[in-house]
Amino acid sequence: MALEDLPLPSPGRGQVLVAVKAAGVNLFDTQLRSGLYKRDLPLTLGLEGAGIVEAVGADVDDIAVGDRVAFIFAAGSYATHTLAPAERVVPLPDKISFEEAAAVLFQGLTAHYLATSTFALGPESATDSAAAVPVRPAVSAPDPRPGRIRSRPVALRTLAA
Fold this sequence. Notes:
globular; alpha+beta; 5-stranded antiparallel sheet; 29% strand; Quinone Oxidoreductase, Chain A, domain 1
């Protein structure tokens, strides 16, 4: 891996240029760095982060220069700046730090996927009522009922404005 200085990109139609203040680091990022997944090189790593909008491209009406934002699935969040599709950018309330925002987007999508596609939540499901997502078990043990696991949920801190 090598660092390179590249020219600052300009946003195209439907894009925003974000000055990255924090980047998320996830399992997929580590797998890319390890060589498990092959990508064309050179490559700027990182797919999620948070920062401040420095420029907006054409057809971007709901995001402005100076906005605090978080983004996901925008390649290059390990750089000082990244171009993000405006449709993958969300406003960041002042009460949420850049670091918190960069750390939760993939996890939120994973929780949504698990709660809606992998395991349908029901009345007996353990959830964080404020976030309405499954709570990661702190302790799991066999449940006497077939096909079930008994868990003690951990407390989750809700990141809401």
